Amino acid sequence: MNQEFTRRVEALVANIRQVVVANPDVIKLSVLGLLCQGHVLLDDLPGVGKTLLAKSLAQSIRADFKRIQFTPDLLPTDITGSSIYSQSNGDFKFIPGPIFANIVLADEINRSSPRTQAALLEAMGEGYVTFDGVTYPLPKPFFVIATRNLTETHGVFPLPQSELDRFLVSFGIGYPGPAEEVEILEKHEHGELQLSPVLTAEDISTMQSQVYQVEVARPVKEYIANIVAGTRASSNIAIGVSPRGAVALQRAAQARAAMTGRDFATPDDVKAVALPVLRHRIAARSSEPDAASKYLEDILSTVPVPL
């Protein structure tokens, strides 16, 4: 992988860190999701910076950005668009909705009805919107970064397992430590900093194509297959990882390798991205908090790593 790729990744991460005070790995996971042509789900408590991270990533790229605030009364057509009658020619004209953007922030996605959620997730999976029998392709690159508040129980609609599978990675930000809290206060003392873009939409499209050029050797593919098989065989897991999840794990490993300047993926790449890629794709039998992560860690510790 050429040095220009890693230089662009470092510039993007550094730009976001001017505003977002978080573990650098969290920011890199967001960038990884973008480079994989996947989508990101941010799961965490209110006020820890989920929306700020999404906005900062969008501001760092010179591309079309739209934000959708999900509410119980939001309709599918508020996302995809609708037809408006034109009196001048006596015909209906399709007016694209906010989903027609390069980067879309879906804020508090679990506050809208399943029907509205499905409209977004269908567009995420297919890359186009169909309205009145006509197909409208979404712009490229197309990237959705959604936030979900897991602490709310009133007025929310849980995402079904099949829809969670549409997201490439899912992770949280967590509370900052005392030193990080002071840094946050300093950054917001005189208002929120507005970032300038460091990359273009064309740069991102080029980098996405380069991720596909990263080689994955047969033993690494077998390692991925064994991890996935372990989730299906575990007595602690009701629903294991789907084939789509296995493909997502391979793609994420390719992106991580590219971000570190390599043109080949290793088992370490797979292991590093396994939790954020697979955690939301399995249904644990236990109701304990973060049980899915615990069971995945157990599987990763027992599956033999190819040399």
Structure in words:
Helix 1 (about 5-15) crosses helix 2 (about 25-35), helix 10 crosses helix 11 (about 265-280) and helix 11 packs antiparallel against helix 12 (about 290-300). The chain has helices at about 5-15, 25-35, 50-60, 75-80, 115-125, 160-165, 180-185, 200-210, 220-235, 245-260, 265-280, 290-300; strands at about 40-45, 60, 65-70, 80-85, 90-95, 105, 130, 135, 145-150, 170, 200, 235-240, 285. The model has no long low-confidence stretch (mean pLDDT about 90). It is an alpha/beta fold and about 300 residues long. The chain folds into two domains: about 1-190, Rossmann fold, CATH 3.40.50; about 210-305, Magnesium chelatase subunit I, C-Terminal domain (Helicase, Ruva Protein, domain 3). Helices cover about 45% and strands about 20% of the residues. The protein has twelve helices and 13 strands. The chain has a five-stranded parallel sheet with strand order 3-6-9-1-10.
Based on the model shown, name its key terms.
about 300 residues; alpha/beta; Rossmann fold; 2 domains; two-stranded parallel ribbon
